[in-house]
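Notes from the 1:1 (GR / supervisor)

We went over the backlog. Supervisor wanted to see one worked example end to end before approving the batch request, so GR pasted a single chain during the call. The sequence is below; no edits were made to it. Supervisor asked that the structure be written out right there so they could see what the output format looks like.
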Amino acid sequence: MDALGLHRLHFAFTITYHYLFPQLTMGLGLFIVIFKVLAIRRKDPLYADAARFWSRVFGLNFAMGVVTGLPMEFQFGASWSRFSEAAGGVIGQTLAMEGLFAFFLESSFLYLLLFGEKKLSPRAHLGAALAVFTGSWLSGWFIIVTNAFMQHPVGHAVNEDGTVILTSLATYLTNPWAFWQYAHTMLGSVVTASFVVAGVSAFYLLSGRHPEHARRCLAVSVVVGAAATVLVAFPAGDAQAKMVHAHQPITFAAMEGHFHTEDGAGLAIIGQPDMDALELDNPVIVPRFLSVMTHQRWDTRIEGLSSFPRSEWPDNVPLLYYAYHVMVGLGTTFIALMGASALLLVRRRLFTFRPILWALLLASPLPYVANTAGWLTAELGRQPWVIHGVMRTAAGFTKEVSSGNVLFTLLGYMGIYALLSVLFLALAGRIVARGFGANKADQPEAT
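Structure output shown during the call:
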C-alpha cells in the first residue's frame, strides 16, 4: 500500500474507533433527560436510579471519546497538512466552535450531572442533564457542518494558489446538506442508545436482576427506539439519499450498484458487484423502484456509473456498495425488531416474552455496525475528493511523512486502542454488574 493509502487507513481507523463512543453519548443524553423528567413528574425514584445509572455509562463513554478524539486533531497536521493548509480557514471555524462552545458546555455540566445531584434540587439537576444533552448535540452539529462542507462545499471561494477561503459564514453554517445529514446521524445515535438501553434491560430481566428498573428502562427504550428506527430511515435517510443523488450522482450510482443508465431503474436488494463486467452477480431487483424512490415516478432516468469518467468513480466501489447495503439491511431489521417489541409492550407481554428479550440483548451491538457502515458510505462515496469538486484526496495528504512512518504509528495506535478497549469493557462490565444501586426489594430472592 502506498503512502496515500496508509494515511487514509490511519485516519479511517482512528475516526471509526472514536465514533464508537460519541454515538452512544449523544443518544444517551436524550435518555437521561427523559428519565429525569419522568422521575420528577411521576415522583418515581426508580426513574431517578435509571438516570443515575445511565449517567455513569455516559461519563465512561465521554472519557473514552475525549481520549480517542484528541489524536485526530494532530492527524490533521501530521497526515493531512496540505489539506489543512488549504482549507483550514474554513473547516477550522466549526472545529473551533465545537471545542469552545459545545465541548465546554457538555464537559462543564457533566461534572454537575455526575457529582452534583446531592447539592442540587431535582429541577436544577435536570437542568444540568439538559445542558449536557444540548452540548453533545451541538457538538454533533458543528462536526456535521464540517463534514457537510467536504461533501457539498458552500459559502467559499478558491484563490489562485488553491487556498479555500470562507466568503459567507452564514451560508457555511446553514449548508442544506448538513441538515439532513445531521438528522440522519443524530437519529442513528438515538437508535444506538435505544438498543444499548434495551439490551442491558433485557439482560437484567433474563437474569432476574433489578426487574422493576429494567421494566421501566426497557419500556422507554422501546418507545424511543421504535420512533427513531423509522425516522432515521424516513424522512432522514430518504432525504439524505436524494441529496446524494442530486449533488453526487456518481456516488449514488455506485452505492446502489447501478452500472448502466436506465429509464425506470430497478432497486437492487442484494447482489455482488462485478467490476470487470460492470454488473451485479446474483441480483435481486425490485423493478423500477429506484426511480420511484428517487423521483416518485416509474419511468425517470437514473444515470449509471458507466456514464461517468472512470477517474471520477469512487476508488472502492464494492466496499461502498456493501457498506450501504449493510446499513440499509440492518436499519430494516431494527424497524422490525423495535416494532415487534412495541407491539408486545402494548399487549403487556414484552417483559416476559423471552425470545424478544434475547433478540434485543443480542442485537444491542448491531447499531454500531450500522452507524459505521453509514459513515463508510459517506466517506468512500466522496472519493476521490477530500473536498468534493474542489480538492482531490491525493492533493491533501502530507508527502513528507513516509509510508513506513505511517504504518509504524498505525500499529502503535492499534495496540494502544486494544488496551483501551480492554479497560473500557472492564469498566463497563463493572457498571453493569453493580446495577442500579441498593434496593433490596428489587433484588432476586436467594434460592
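Supervisor's comment: The chain has 14 helices and eight strands.
Batch request approved.
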